[in-house]
From TrEMBL:
<keyword id="KW-0520">NAD</keyword>
<dbReference type="InterPro" id="IPR006140">
    <property type="entry name" value="D-isomer_DH_NAD-bd"/>
</dbReference>
<dbReference type="InterPro" id="IPR036291">
    <property type="entry name" value="NAD(P)-bd_dom_sf"/>
</dbReference>
<keyword id="KW-0560">Oxidoreductase</keyword>
<dbReference type="GO" id="GO:0030267">
    <property type="term" value="F:glyoxylate reductase (NADPH) activity"/>
</dbReference>
<protein>
    <submittedName>
        <fullName>Putative 2-hydroxyacid-family dehydrogenase</fullName>
    </submittedName>
</protein>
<dbReference type="GO" id="GO:0005829">
    <property type="term" value="C:cytosol"/>
</dbReference>
<dbReference type="GO" id="GO:0016618">
    <property type="term" value="F:hydroxypyruvate reductase [NAD(P)H] activity"/>
</dbReference>
<dbReference type="InterPro" id="IPR050223">
    <property type="entry name" value="D-isomer_2-hydroxyacid_DH"/>
</dbReference>
<dbReference type="Pfam" id="PF02826">
    <property type="entry name" value="2-Hacid_dh_C"/>
</dbReference>
<dbReference type="GO" id="GO:0051287">
    <property type="term" value="F:NAD binding"/>
</dbReference>
<feature type="domain" description="D-isomer specific 2-hydroxyacid dehydrogenase NAD-binding">
    <location>
        <begin position="142"/>
        <end position="293"/>
    </location>
</feature>
<dbReference type="InterPro" id="IPR029753">
    <property type="entry name" value="D-isomer_DH_CS"/>
</dbReference>
Length: 333
């Protein structure tokens, strides 16, 4: 019988049991020879033997950086499977240079973000924040002046896996949303196949009732929504950001929202968290949540389940569903 591959776990201790609850850990133990101790420091002498023998590394939030020095301690490593979304925080080009297969559970993390975004789109389409603020003061909107979702134009910035998921949900919604897409890597034909109309970013801002951000955090995307583009938004529009805080100019957004002209639904901010007393935390037409759109609580086991499936695929010689290529690093979140 072939020897089972040796596997090391590298992630924050506080998330281990959430990511790999007992049934998933039992599956993993049946697939591989799992080192009993969680590794949080790849330079720890106590982990040297386990790392030297490891063929598989199952990582999660808090995984140490996999640079050349760390990889020198893992000469037999053949695959690094990430039980979370982005691998940008720990995987370096040295991983791919050594021919190590990399996989991410980003697909599993995308579904909750899509659902979260859709929930905020429905709220935004009804101008729920402003209406709720008025209701607190005893003002109830006259029925014929209330706003609904039907026919609203939603501008999606970025055809990422989450952006595409949102577009799919919008296209299938009974509200008849008009969907615009801005993405420099997508052509008109591909956008049309998704069910969206490809437009420039400035045009998207001018035409949208709701703008939702799903682009990666790159040097060229910092403040993608800056003061000039936020000024293009029509009165009553809403901005949704569940991607990265750096994509939106925080000060410019606070100024626009402070006038009451637009609303904002922010699951991410720059900085994160915002300092106490920040205007965006105090405005009634802004909802700020603490980066909770992705897998949370009981949902986190979806990431572990995806990762264990990937481990099984690798061991049995099947293609990795969440494989990340070196070229992807420049464009992923």
């Amino acid at each position: 019988m072939a020897e089972r591959p040796k596997l090391v776990l590298a992630m924050r201790p506080d998330i281990l049991d959430l990511v790999l609850p007992a049934p998933l850990r039992a599956r993993l133990d049946a697939l591989a020879d799992v080192h009993p101790d969680l590794v949080t420091d790849l330079a720890d002498p106590g982990a040297a033997r386990a790392l030297a023998d490891a063929r598989l590394l199952l990582t999660g939030w808090g995984c140490p950086v996999l640079d050349a020095e760390a990889l020198d301690r893992m000469p037999r490593l053949a695959a690094a499977v990430h039980a979370a979304g982005s691998v940008r925080h720990h995987a370096t080009p040295a991983v791919w240079a050594r021919g190590i297969a990399v996989s991410s559970a980003a697909d599993a993390n995308a579904a909750p973000v899509v659902e979260y975004t859709m929930a905020t789109i429905w709220l935004a389409s009804h101008r729920a924040l402003g209406t709720a603020a008025a209701y607190v003061t005893g003002r109830e909107p006259v029925f014929h002046l209330r706003q609904g979702a039907d026919g609203a134009t939603v501008g999606v910035i970025g055809a990422s896996r989450i952006g595409r998921g949102v577009i799919g949900r919008l296209v299938g919604a009974a509200a008849g949303f008009q969907v615009l897409l801005a993405d420099p890597y997508v052509g008109a034909a591909e956008a049309d196949a998704l069910g969206a109309t490809l437009v420039g970013l400035d045009d998207l801002c001018r035409r949208s009732d709701i703008v939702t951000v799903h682009a990666p955090d790159l040097p060229e995307t910092r403040h993608l929504l800056d003061a000039d583009r936020l000024a293009l938004l029509r009165d009553g529009a809403a901005v949704i950001n569940s991607a990265r805080g750096r994509l939106v100019d925080t000060d410019a957004l606070a100024r626009e929202c402070g006038t009451g002209r637009i609303d904002a639904y922010l699951d991410v901010t720059e900085p994160e968290p915002l300092p106490a007393g920040h205007p965006l935390l105090l405005l009634r037409n802004v909802l700020v949540t603490p980066h909770i759109a992705g897998c949370q609580g009981s949902e986190v086991q979806r990431l572990g389940g995806y990762a264990v499936d990937e481990v099984e695929r690798w061991i049995t010689g099947q293609p990795l569903r969440g494989r990340v290529q070196a070229a992807d690093l420049a464009r992923i979140a």
